[in-house]
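User: Need the bound-state model for adenosine-5'-triphosphate:
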Amino acid sequence: MTVQSAFQEEAARVDEVLVQIRKQLREIGPRYTGNDFTEQMLELQREQRQQRLEVAEREPYFGRIDFQETVHPAPKPLYIGKAGVAHEKSNDVLVVDWRAPVASLFYAFSGGEAPVTYESPDGDVEGTVHLKRNLMIRDGKLERVVDSYVRGQEEESVTDEFLLYRLGESKDNKLRDIVSTIQQEQDRIIRTDKNKAVFIQGVAGSGKTTVALHRLAYLLYRYAGAIRAERMVIFAPNRMFLDYISGVLPELGVGDILQTTFADWAQEQLQHEVRLDEAYDPFVYWFEQPRTREEMEHAPSRVKGSLAFKALVDEKLSLTEASLIPEQSFEPLPGWKVTPAMIVEWLSTDDASEPYMKRRSRLVSRLKRWLESEWKARRLADGKLKSQLGTKLNAYTKKIPSYTASQLYSSLLREPAVQELLPAKSTAATIKALKQKLVQPEDLAPLVYIQLRLFGFEHSPYDHIVIDEAQDYSPFQLEALKQCQRQPSMTVLGDLQQGIHGYAGIHSWKELISLLPEADTGYFELDRSYRSTMEIIDFANLVLGAMGTGVKPAVPVFRSGEMVEVTNASTDDERLALVVDTVKAWQKSGHYRTMAVLGRTARSCEEIAGKLAEAGIAASLVQSKQDAYGGGLTVVPAYLSKGLEFDAVLIADADGDSFGSNDAKLLYVACTRALHKLKLLYCGELTSLVSEPVAAV
Ligand SMILES: Nc1ncnc2c1ncn2[C@@H]1O[C@H](COP(=O)(O)OP(=O)(O)OP(=O)(O)O)[C@@H](O)[C@H]1O
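Assistant: Bound-state model below.
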């Protein structure tokens, strides 16, 4: 078949399918706004169906695979789309949902005549692939047809032309779904079993965040009923990042998933008993002046996130739990007696895994009931005596320790074992802050862990937890989150090479993986970077190489662009003028939808934003407490740019003072934010991290 006739045939089919989709959309019943519960549930289903059909109307499908099961006489074309669609009368499948087992063939197949299999709920299905085709449909119109495999023909270019086309596009201000171009190594992660904690180490731009979001959509489809969106949670590094990724899940037809930061979530669990001390911003402390590695390694935040510190918290909690059984009997009047042995007996009927404060409150109620029944049995009526007995009971129960999380934490911080781990100055400061109900980020993991152990988790256990940028998490944070699940079902992703928060995060994935039973964990590495051009990735790899041995370079997708530019300015004023000129030139070129000027510090970014404003250029200056990401032109400190991406990036101060020898990870993060264009400016000496100026201009 010629390319021309294949296009016509596919265009005709798109029209046919669209007729079906539009008919089904028209036939969705009227909206229900009443109070009947069953009708409300039906309305919800109608609404979800409508959303799926609307997605299908814009782009009914993106792929076709002709698969011949070994037991069948002929191949059958399967069209893969974001939402499954069936013919309303015949029920024939017109579009297969990308998450269906058979759709995995589309992602996993990379050519060849040998039989392939996919896993179906009824077992493995074997067959051969006859055709793999990409189709680009925009707003219901077929625009492109690209075959990546035709059986019996010379192998088509397997460098995925369609993928390159997609990667070459400019980006808007939100991360997008990748269902049409998911790669084999990503698909394997997305389709991993629900009862696994999957750890993903992936180089910058390898699609970790995107893959994690697609995995959620997959799990909701594959385990419909057993897993619910309301019982899933995504932890992201900050609110601006949450805003940036907020478009992906709705586009995949997924709603209602809690998306939060660890700090916000922890304060919520602590019922806002404490709040973060605004006077201390760890970013300002660690990034606004040069800090040594030594200082980071010994930071109190590292200690408070460690398992050694958790062991002390556990010990304190065990002692607290043991104190549930008082040493003395309760004997309010001669002959009226509850002995510790009786309390042990009472508690033996209790669930010992229940949180301490719940068991305590049940014990206090039990003592009250006992006093009541003794009173009734003796038919007493003296009101004064009754109130005396009540007072005695109160005095007795007061000896059974009762804590809020911050009280127990404060008391722990006073103990000698803690003083051995942490500098006295640091614990004293924390205790003082706690009195004013203020904490620092590193106190949240121990506090929320204590809260969960004392009071339990107030919600249904999470079906699935996603942790993005997990290299910045401490083992203690993961331990706290484990308290909110019956069994581990997680997607934990990050990149140790982007671990710029050395004062808090991990050095090796083992530190987190070892906290879970081995059989429940899976570890994956993603080495290919999809975001940036080859030139940018090669340049970023050189920066990383400056860290010495043990680094893993990112493997670029074969997408070539412009050389990275490194430009020297003789004075600082000239450097700032060059920033303005570069931005003007980029804007004029019309090539880039999103651009960023990255500075080493917040202060340098303020200066740059000021210069741009003087030149009449509108830019949004990103600060650490930012909630929203607006796209367009952004000025952002390098340490806040993690996770984001821009068509063009200008690193405005690539001199040796701004990026010292300890800043390789930070500069790597900065460079890998760029999709198509990267330029570095410096005044004075170029940072030694850039050992080979690539295109000195
Ligand atoms: N299979 C793919 N097809 C098309 N685009 C992809 C694919 N995988 C990743 N991308 C694109 O690559 C870019 C990087 O993805 P993402 O932000 O998820 O990567 P990341 O590994 O989380 O990056 P970082 O660690 O730098 O934050 C995004 O623009 C994403 O759409």
